[in-house]
From TrEMBL:
InterPro entries: Cytidylyl_trans, Nucleotide-diphossugar_trans
Coiled coil: none
Any one of the GO CC terms: cytosol
Organism: Azospirillum cavernae
Record has Ligase as a keyword: no
Keywords: Capsid protein, Virion
Entry keyword DNA damage: no
SUPFAM superfamilies: Nucleotide-diphospho-sugar transferases
Name of protein: Spore coat protein
Signal peptide: none
Superkingdom of source: Bacteria
Any single Pfam family the record assigns to this protein: CTP_transf_3
């Protein structure tokens, strides 16, 4: 980052059609739009963002994903399917990012204000500069996840990480070297942890997210994560729809 000017902050979201548990999930429709459109529209409203980029693969199966983003005016970078780390590095270079916000497109309920708070906290804590900050996915519902770090650190990880799982999941190289990087404490909600799943990995996840979108959007198009909580307070049985789904482990 260049001293004396505000860094260029770019959100990069990864997406592909070949998800192992729910293929094509990002283009499933809810409330009249593909989940990917909901995700990108909400992400683009995040305060402090200068640009949003979609990072997808070179596979022909992902042509529809690229087409959806392009139709929205979202720049698209296409790279290796399994080496997601190099895909992110390429997308960040294309966008001339100074700071990268990493998100995944299976989070159609991502909260713009929460992403904005993450950006503000990262940029404010610069004495000495932070290398990494994240939303606390152990305390917020899964599906609000976001990470932020300088592009220089992303480039270093892309040049150094060797293990396949480091390259597939983008940021493990950073997490595993606290002696090398300044890692900020994850941002968590006030109060107790909220152990719910709002990301989409399986059909049950999609059913819950579909209900939330179709309930909230007509009256509250700019809804946030607390609005989702209120709907689930009104429909406590909905939480059971995907309660049995477990997050995949890193490896």
């Amino acid at each position: 980052m260049t001293a004396g000017r505000r860094p260029r902050v770019v959100a990069i979201s990864q997406a592909r059609m070949t998800s192992t548990r729910l293929p094509g999930k990002v283009l499933l429709e809810a409330a009249g739009k593909p989940l990917l459109v909901h995700h990108l529209e909400r992400l683009a409203r995040s305060p402090g963002l200068d640009a949003v980029v979609l990072a997808t693969t070179l596979n022909a199966a992902d042509d529809p994903v690229a087409a959806v983003a392009a139709a929205m005016g979202i720049p698209v970078f296409r790279g290796d399917e399994l080496d997601v780390l190099s895909r992110f590095a390429g997308a960040a270079a294309m966008a001339e990012a100074d700071v990268v916000v990493r998100v995944t497109s299976d989070c159609p309920l991502i909260d713009p204000e929460l992403v904005g708070a993450l950006i503000a906290a990262f940029l404010a804590d610069q004495q000495p500069p932070l290398d990494y900050l994240s939303i606390d996915s152990a305390r917020y519902p899964r599906g609000l996840d976001a990470e932020i770090f300088p592009r220089t650190l992303l480039d270093e990880a892309a040049a150094t990480a060797r293990e396949p799982w480091e390259r597939e999941h983008v940021t493990p190289f950073i997490h595993q070297h606290p002696e090398r990087f300044r890692l900020g404490a994850p941002l968590g909600p006030d109060g107790p942890a909220i152990e719910q799943r709002w990301c989409v990995d399986e059909a049950a996840d999609f059913e819950l997210v579909r209900r939330l979108l179709e309930t909230l959007l007509p009256a509250t198009p700019l809804f946030g994560w607390r609005d989702c909580c209120r709907v689930l307070d009104d429909h406590p049985d909905w939480v059971d729809i995907n309660r049995s789904i477990r997050q995949k482990t890193l490896h």
